Amino acid sequence: MSEPARQRQALIVRGGWDGHHPVEATELFIPFLRENGFDVRIEESPAVYADADVMAATDLIVQCNTMNTIEKDEMLGLRAAIEAGTGMAGWHGGIADSYRNSSDYLQLIGGQFATHPGRHPDERPGNEEDNYLPYTVEITDLGRTHEITAGIDDFELNTEQYWVLHDDLIDVLATTTHPTQPYHPWHRPITSPAVWTRLWGKGRIFVATPGHSVDVLEDPNVRTIIERGMLWASR
């Protein structure tokens, strides 16, 4: 008799800034992971990345850990796991604004949050909605054929629009363009990646920049992209 197939292992690493609702946001996707055959482990810090045995057994990391810090041994463990085939996925600041103290992490992910331009100064209520803008997520030519975004048309959101610093090793599936405004200092529109993938050693990395709040994650387009991205990234 053949041995039963090993159940895939998903590791959720959450924490950091509470404004991104790391618990509520990740809980949204746990049923999906379980329905797709994953055993789900939850950790509240990146300390687990330093555990080589756990990382070797992990098929997918889902990270929602904004503005936190990472220790050297944790970073080395994370990179080694991904190079060996562990996948990594995340959204918004939980992956693209996680560990500002580590240039190695920034290189691994391939894109880093820089800012989210705000509304006109006269239209800011003085809370997080100061940075909520209507914008379009535009699917690229690659995105129209990629399994993560195929069949999804350009779509509109009203939330934080991430300006991302990035390199050329990412494969961009969707973009968003920041227009020029008389109250902003830049002089021409800036296009940032909104959804991308990255190959790193034997591993796969998936990033979506929408996801500031749970209602954005519940948007049918955003949720579909993230769910597909997690499956794509997994070993």
Q: Could you outline the blueprint of secondary structure elements for this entry?
A:
Layout: E1 8-16, H1 22-27, H2 30-35, E2 38-43, H3 52-57, E3 60-66, H4 72-83, E4 87-91, H5 93-96, H6 103-109, E5 111-115, E6 133-139, H7 141-145, E7 155-159, E8 163-166, E9 171-178, E10 190-200, E11 203-208, H8 214-217, H9 220-233
Parallel strand pairs: 1-2, 1-3, 3-4, 4-11
Antiparallel strand pairs: 5-8, 6-7, 6-9, 9-10, 10-11
Verbal overview:
The chain has 235 residues and is of the alpha/beta class. The chain contains nine helices and eleven strands. A nine-stranded mixed beta sheet has the order 2-1-3-4-11-10-9-6-7. A hairpin with a 2-residue loop joins β10 (190-200) and β11 (203-208).
Instruction: State which percent range the strand residues make up.
Output: 25-35%
Q: Which of globular, elongated, flat, extended, rod-shaped describes the shape?
A: globular
Helix and strand sequence: EHHEHEHEHHEEHEEEEEHH
Largest sheet features? 9 strands, mixed
Oligomer: single chain
Overall helicity? 25-40%
Instruction: State Rg.
Output: 18 Å
Order of adjacent strands in the largest pleated sheet: 2-1-3-4-11-10-9-6-7
Low-confidence stretches: none
Average residue pLDDT: 97
SS field, number of helical segments: 9
Distance from first to last alpha carbon: 25 Å
